[in-house]
Amino acid sequence: MFLSQVVATTFSCFIQIVVLNLSLNQIPEVCQDHQVDHFTCPGGRVFFAASIIWGLLGPARMFSPGQVYSGLFVFFILGAITPIVIYVSAKRWPRSPVRYLMAPLIFGGAGAIPPATPLNYLSWGIVGFVFQFWIKKRHFRWWTRLNFLTSSALDLGLALATLFIFFAFTLHGVGPPSWWGNNIVTSTMDIQGTAIQAHVPEGGRFGPENW
């Protein structure tokens, strides 16, 4: 099992590099907002923003006392206190729903935003609740034998279906059918960029006048 994971992980490293280079070199305007097939580079945008914060501006101008994001330091205190509160509460009320809470998972999971969006968290939450709570509670024998095998099968099915769709349809210029299941994603506030309080005008800026 361990050897198979090592081989698969090593092989996937080379595959990801090949796919990345092919995508950047062969897909027109792959990281642009108006890309025709809606390809985006969320991970690249996150690292670009991080390089601005930690490199160009520097953390002192962002998070020092009195700066625009100094309030974020409160989460250091919350991160230290919350696990203790949950632990004590679970010991005090062992049958209460608080026993299902895990502070590192809550705060660590929130760290995936960005590039993840509420749409990602909603789908993860629904699938996780169905398999890890409902099925586990009512069909435990099936869950112990097939739960994680089903997860691997769904991942493999997605990969194979992606390859099939690309070679059978996309490569030949055949577009997907227009129906709710395909169009709902493009109508969300996340992809339309409307889930913000205000737009920065051309040539404008937000934050302090001087950094």
UniProtKB/TrEMBL annotation:
Entry's Gene Ontology BP terms: protein transport
Keywords: Membrane, Peptide transport, Protein transport, Transmembrane, Transmembrane helix, Transport
Membrane topology label: Multi-pass membrane protein
Taxonomic superkingdom: Eukaryota
Signal peptide range in chain numbering: none
Recorded GO MF terms: oligopeptide transmembrane transporter activity
Membrane spanning stretches: 69-90, 147-169
Any Pfam family the entry gives: OPT
Compartments where located: Membrane
GO cellular component, one term: membrane
Family per similarity comment: Belongs to the oligopeptide OPT transporter family.
This protein's name: Uncharacterized protein
Organism: Fusarium gaditjirri
